[in-house]
Design goal:
mainly alpha; 3-stranded antiparallel beta sheet; single chain; 17 helices
Amino acid sequence: MLTKFKKIDFTIVFILLLLMGISIAVLYSATSGTKYDGYHIRMFVYYLLGFAVFFSVSLIDFRLLIKYAVYIYSFGIGLLIVVMFAGNTYHNATGWLTLPGGLSFQPAEFFKLLLVLFLGFMLLRKRKPKLMFWRDVVPILLVTFIPFVLVMAQNDLGNALSYLVILAGMLWIGNIKYTHALIALVLFAGSVFGGITAYKVYHEQVYKFFEEIGRAHWMARIDPWLMPEKASRDAIYHTQNAKLAIASGGMTGEGYLQGETVQSERVPLTYSDSIFVVIAEEFGFIGSSVLLLLYFVLIHRLILISLDCRDRSGPYVIVGIVAMFLYQVFENIGMFIGLMPLTGITLPFVSYGGTSLLINMACIGVAMSIRIHGHEAEEDQPLTTTRYTRVKSQNP
């Protein structure tokens, strides 16, 4: 065990400690004197549990998780089905299960890691260097589509979209054919362009449709992004005040505990989804850049682990985890500066939330397990079957 412990990347551990300090400090600023006062202490406890999860998962051979990925995936699908009938509703999404002790658990968050492991298992079974459409790509699309539909039915658009981002990243590292990738890219771009155009042209009809299926609140999130002139005052309240807070932060910020907009509670959910707004207003562009730099270094270290791994499944899993983190960071920050629509995606390792933090720490634990156990190549398997391994073979 001591030998395994020595192989841990302590640069990543240091980054996690820095993110913990940022999270606790900003949560204190965002919740002090409000009904959420004390959330920073809860977050500290969650981080203690998170580090326990991180080190525990790190010591488990990740190949065992890949080996039993079918059962892990099935268990996750079962949780997603259960939560549809026995889940609690928060912010219009029915996605939480109540655990003993009054704790809440969100299966959709948990399933991100399960999906990464199962897709890694499926990619490991491919027989040719390039992914075959009917044998490889279609089954992978199907096993991603199932949880996507289940989570969409729970009214959780943010987590559902994260599954598609994970899918795209893992298909790419799995060596999808360029023709297939190009076709998918054209279809995606056409769908986005056509969807946005149709949304603007047939806005009233779209609103009536969403209202009929009980998703009228989606319009309240999309309108401020695409058609702010059509959005109600309540719909633009969140994003408008968030943009004002970010702008008022300037280069160096208004100072810790001095953010006028966030301290006056004019920005909702500053302890969770909107926590980046607190950082931007109180620490400015410099503070925001430092946070992004920490994410960059974390992603860079994860990619280095994948490049150093000799087991084929390691890079698959790492890229899935990286895709998940990149999506969360981009979506969370983008929705407050007008790049993305408002969703319920939290900022990794910073926003308050036990489930999301523990899952993120488990993901880093899996990546560390790959670093510890991934130096022995698989038997009877060629190494040059992923984009990463082809790069390594060309640059010895």
